[in-house]
Every structure is written in C-alpha cells, then in structure tokens.
Design brief:
Elements (H helix, E strand, L loop, with lengths): L8 H4 L11 H34 L6 H27 L10 H33 L2 H4 L11 H4 L5 H7 L3 H16 L12 H26 L5 H16 L7 E2 L8 E2 H28 L1
Antiparallel strand pairs: 1-2
C-alpha cells in the first residue's frame, strides 16, 4: 500500500517550492499542480484500499469482522474511488468555467457520497477491530458507542494501543464531522454554479430577459400547434445554455451559502488522505495482532 507521507498535500509541493515566489498569479499554477498530483495519488490509494478490505476480511473471524471489512470497507472504498474520479473530472483544480445545472447535480452527489462514506468506512474499521480484538465487555456495548475516536478503544486494554496511535487524528475527526454530519442529517453539500461580478450580473440579466422572451414564444407556438414548435424549443435550449455560461466558477462547497464554505482543493483530497492514513494505522494494528 501507499506510504503515509506520499499522499499528504504538503508533500506534493516539494517539486514546486523553488518556483513559488509569493506572486498570486504565478503561485496559483503551482498550487494547482500540487493539488492535481495529490488527487491522482489519493485515487490510486483508494483503489488499493478496496483490495485491502477484501484481503483483510479473509484473515479475520467470520461474522462481524469479516462483514465490515469485505462488504463495508471494500465497498465504501470503491464508492469513494468512483466519486473522487467523477469530482476530479468535473472539477479539476484549475476549473474556472461556470457549471451547468447537470454538472452541479453530479458534483453535489459526489461530495455527499465522499463525506458520508468517509465516516462510514471509519465506522466499519471500528466494528471490525472491536469484534475481532476487543474484550467481551467491549463487544457488548451499544452500537452507537463504537468508533475509532470514541473512548471505547482507549478503555479496552486490547484496543488502547490503537487509540494511542490514532490520537493525532482526533482534531481531524472533529473537522470531518462538521462536513459530514449536516450532510447526513440536515442539509446536503453542494456547490454554486458560478459567481457574478457587476458586469456579469448585467449580462445575466440581459440573457435572462432574452430567455424569458424565447420561452414565452415557444409556449405560444406549442399552444397554437404551429409547425415551428420544435425550432422554438431549440431556441429555448440555446438561450438557457447562454444563461448558464455567465460568470466564473469558484471551487468551494458547503451546506448553506450563508455559512463558511470550504475549498474543494485541497480539502476533499486531503480529507480522503487522512482517512487513508487512519486506515493504514488500523491495518498495521491488525497485522501485529493477527501475526501474534
């Protein structure tokens, strides 16, 4: 599998530090290069995690540990791999072109798939280690108390070494909860198709008036059953496409436009990288116990 330091965003800047000089226009290009490199490495690591889920499921007990590794970790890793590939295809680090409505829906779906499954995969790992290595008492606790960053691990002598090695990720676990929990229980994550400055707003208003006019004409053509109805609705589609092309896309996401937004890069690949690092620590813990 990957080495932890390879997939961290700071490592991706190493080849470009010589050219980063504090000039925003110059530095943005190198930041995009680093972000692109991390996204590709994380994709590869997620593919490896799929295989790891299946491989480790064959080494643990049948039942809960096997199920959570093979059908939890492996499946979620595949969902994350597919969602990141789709997100990256639609939103490369340097994208500035406005999004159309279909693209917004796809990107929103990918973001929610990613954040819901990051948490789900961590929980699958927790269930696997608790039911493979935990004491009898720990295995009987309420399901809601099982988690890699809950006191369940630190209070179990068999699992406390894992809790210690994961302690440095406690703050990240709290950060990821801010992005995941509202998406799962309240407001889904999304992106804005574009932002408009004063000039773009004026152009949008002009095109919106044009769109309203051709739409009204198309409805009239349909009502009158005129022969040019198909051409009329084709003009509506063209006007709608022009309307969606105004402005500039900013790669930020959030639950509500009134709250703090997060940059897609490096936030999303870095959150996945952190999940992968936690997974690697769990597998190392499992290797040591399974080999004993």
């Amino acid at each position: 599998m990957f080495r932890e330091e390879e997939i961290d965003i700071e490592r991706q800047f190493d080849p470009y530090r010589h050219w980063i000089n504090g000039n925003p226009e110059n530095d943005q290009y190198w930041h995009h290069q680093a972000q692109e490199g991390q996204a590709l490495l994380v994709m590869d690591a997620l593919r490896d995690l799929m295989g790891a889920g299946v491989t480790y499921s064959a080494r643990v007990d049948a039942g809960t540990p096997h199920t959570h590794l093979r059908f939890g970790v492996a499946r979620r890793a595949k969902a994350l791999w597919g969602a990141l590939r789709s997100l990256h295809a639609n939103v490369p680090p340097d994208r500035a072109a406005p999004m159309n409505h279909d693209e917004v829906e796809v990107v929103s779906r990918d973001l929610n798939v990613i954040y819901i499954n990051i948490r789900g995969l961590l929980d699958n790992l927790a269930w696997a280690v608790v039911h493979q290595f935990g004491t009898g008492a720990t295995k009987q606790i309420a399901p809601v108390q099982i988690g890699l960053f809950r006191r369940t691990l630190s209070q179990d002598d068999n699992l406390s070494p894992l809790a210690e090695t994961l302690a440095e990720y406690q703050q990240w676990d709290r950060d990821i909860s801010e992005r995941r929990d509202p998406a799962a229980h309240r407001i889904p994550l999304s992106v804005a198709p574009s932002v408009l400055d004063e000039a773009a707003q004026a152009e949008w208003n002009r095109l919106k008036a044009e769109y309203d006019a051709v739409f009204a004409a198309a409805i009239a053509a349909a009502s009158d059953r005129r022969a040019d109805v198909d051409q009329s609705f084709a003009r509506v589609s063209e006007a709608h496409a022009r309307l969606q092309s105004v402005g500039r896309f900013l790669p930020w996401f959030g639950h509500d436009y009134a709250e703090r937004q997060n940059p897609i890069y490096p936030t999303v690949p870095q959150d996945l990288a952190m999940m992968l690092k936690v997974s690697a620590r769990v597998f190392t813990f499992m290797d040591e116990r399974l080999a004993a």
